[in-house]
Amino acid sequence: MSFRLAVCAEMVYGDLPLLDRVRRIHEHGFEVELWDTRGRDIRALAATGATFSSMSGYFGGSVIDPANAHEVLASAEKLIPTALELGVERMVVHPAELGEGGRAVRPAYRSTGDMWLTGLRTLERLGELGAKHGVTFALENLNTILDHPGIPLARAKDTLALVQSVNHPNVKMMLDLYHAQMGEGNLTELVRAAQPFTGEIQVADVPGRFEPGTGEINYPAIAKALDESGFTGVIGLEAGAIGGPGIEAGDAALAAFRAAFTRN
What we know:
Layout: E1 4-8, H1 18-27, E2 31-33, H2 42-47, E3 52-56, H3 69-86, E4 90-93, H4 113-133, E5 136-140, H5 156-166, E6 171-176, H6 177-183, H7 187-194, E7 198-203, H8 219-229, E8 234-237, H9 247-260
Parallel strand pairs: 1-2, 1-8, 2-3, 3-4, 4-5, 5-6, 6-7, 7-8
């Protein structure tokens, strides 16, 4: 299996400052995922030598809300220079604006035709922006059961349908298997169906959102299905370490992640 493996610096080694987390992830041979880069020392992050696979691609508005979808586009454009300085390949967007704790800023519990059409048009314009600057915008699926209530069109089948409809090389799916398992299941068939439209995959086990091997998901089987489908892109660990925020627990989580996606 020839996957590129990344680790979200926001969720492991919590006892360390962010720069030290990035350095340690890089030293272990992984790429790095970031969330909100505003207020971060971008020059220092670039100087670590790490490869950054993804970062948040907007900070205002909602992809699917006709009243403020323009804010997604405006904030995405403001973040492009950061992405280019860090060499980020994918800028992540969500079906709605997330607030504190990942909650919907404007909760809605039913999707409408206007939401679908607005999402399609916004993603088309993000695709044009991405093509202009050489980055890809990745729409991430979310679960509404536990982590992100009040976000319509958040299920993997909905985000996949939107990305398929846009059909633009600079618009892909950030396929989060933790969220998909929480809300939908049937992960093996999902990764096969989504493979042509997937820009990056994120993983964590269920329950708990810790490293592979700590819950119910058979990640070695998922890895086999991904390999057989021809996926050779980035798989990112967006999970905490079950042993806590310390260095030893973080190292163990990274080792378990690598083992799940490496065939001897």
